[in-house]
From TrEMBL:
It comes from the Bacteria. The keyword Membrane applies. It comes from Paenibacillus marchantiophytorum. Its main location: membrane. Belongs to the GerABKC lipoprotein family. This is Ger(X)C family spore germination protein.
Length: 362
């Protein structure tokens, strides 16, 4: 009799819980946050909702896009619920896109909301949308099998592997905005009519976006940071150019502060690959000369990029974090010392290129 009473009590408790069946939920697969164009509101929240289908063939990814303007993210969600007949479920949202207009202001409010909600994954990918986050989410791709899956394949390296794509997690972006000595960087998704392009990036200070990197600078940053294993690079040689396909890449750096000498950062990059294309005649016995051409040209380009970041007082590489890791004392004193040191920092880039051949053409 006691067991029966316990079972009945558990049944009553379950009837009063907040669980909802799967057919009474809308699954949010992507989140877009823009600056509102209305004068009396701050944000425009756009949600990409997956519409279940009978198959997962190419081009069958069905979704619904809903947007709302309000002064807070919480209010946006509350107003969006009044437009729907099912509960919003953020548990499957793996991509968050900020509009570029919003990133010019302080994004602390929106990132705070994303990190506080218990149903939004901290391993969601973050990106900047151009011209807006809503425009990126509304792009329909003919080859997409599941709503929002194309972006996940791009950033997760489970699909395409590109030297121009920077991947950034939500938790990592939030950490870098708080960390002294390491600035965040986000990829830019350019929306087109039936596709999008990801080959540029935005560098932030501790509050907002401050510098845009073009596609060549983004690729160089990925190489120096060691974010990838495969990349294609070009190098001049005499009166023509050749292109190298790199399939093995390792990078590391260290900040040195020798006594009575100018401080410097040493960046070592090791690459291995094969010449994939050339606009001139190549000879197998000249491989050392081709390797030297790659090393010299890319060392100069990397130093130029690092000085550009230094002039803007930006440090997405994390030189300041490395300095703090090797200098012990009070945190505030370390940080003040680094801020005084960084403008005087020299950069020494050392590249070791190993070419395995000039291709199959003899």
């Amino acid at each position: 009799m006691k067991k029966l009473l316990i079972i009945l009590l558990l049944i009553c408790l379950c009837c009063g819980c907040g669980f909802k069946d799967i057919d009474r939920r809308f699954f949010v697969v992507a989140i877009g946050i823009d600056k509102s164009e209305k004068k009396d509101t701050k944000f425009r929240l756009t949600l990409k909702l997956a519409v279940p289908g009978n198959n997962i063939d190419m081009g069958s990814a069905k979704f619904e896009l809903i947007s709302q303007d309000a002064n807070s993210m919480t209010e946006c969600v509350r107003l969006l619920k009044s437009k729907l007949d099912k509960e919003l479920d953020f548990g499957h949202a793996k991509i968050v896109i900020f509009g570029q207009s919003l990133l010019k202001d302080n994004v602390a409010d929106s990132t705070d909301w994303l990190n506080r909600r218990r149903d939004i994954q901290l391993v969601a990918w973050l990106a900047a949308g151009k011209p807006s986050a809503e425009a990126v989410l509304s792009t329909e791709l003919a080859h997409e099998r599941l709503p929002g899956n194309a972006l996940l394949l791009s950033f997760g390296k489970t699909g395409v592997e590109s030297g121009y794509i920077i991947s950034e997690y939500l938790f990592d972006f939030y950490r870098k905005k708080k960390e002294w000595g390491l600035d965040p960087i986000l990829p830019i998704i350019q929306a087109e009519k039936k596709h999008y392009t990801i080959n540029t990036s935005l560098v932030f200070d501790k509050e907002k976006s401050k510098l845009a990197l073009n596609m060549d600078e983004t690729r160089l940053f990925n190489i120096m940071k060691g974010n990838l294993n495969k990349v294609e690079i070009e190098a001049p040689f005499e009166d023509f150019q050749f292109y190298v396909s790199v399939d093995d890449l390792h990078s590391n750096f260290r900040v040195y502060t020798p006594a009575n000498q100018r401080p410097y950062a040493k960046i070592d990059v090791k690459m291995r690959g094969v010449i994939e294309e050339s606009y001139g005649r190549l000879h197998g016995e000249q491989l050392p000369a081709y390797e030297e051409a790659v090393e010299k040209s890319h060392e100069e380009l990397m130093v130029k990029l690092l000085k550009k970041l230094q002039d803007e007082n930006l440090d997405p590489m994390g030189f300041g974090l490395d300095y703090r890791a090797h200098h012990f004392g009070k945190v505030e004193e370390e940080w003040q010392a680094w801020q005084a040191l960084y403008p005087e920092l020299e950069f020494q880039v050392n590249i070791k290129m190993k070419l395995e051949g000039i291709g199959v053409i003899k």
